[in-house]
Amino acid sequence: MTCVQNNTPKIFLKQKSRFVGCPEMDTDSETQKKWTDLLKNLFPVEVALSCQPVPFFEEVKSSGARYGIRLPEGLKSASVSRQRDYFAGRYCARQALYHMGFSGCLDIPKGKDGCPIWPRGVVGSISHAEGLAVAVVTNWKNAQGIGIDLEKKVSDREGKQLLPVIATRNETAIITTRFPNDTGAAFTTLFSAKEAIYKALYPLVGHFFDFSEARLTGYHRIDHRLEFDLSADLLKKTGVSQFHVSFGEVDTYVVTGSVC
Question: Is 104 left (phi over 0), alpha (psi -120 to 50) or beta?
Answer without folding.
Answer: left
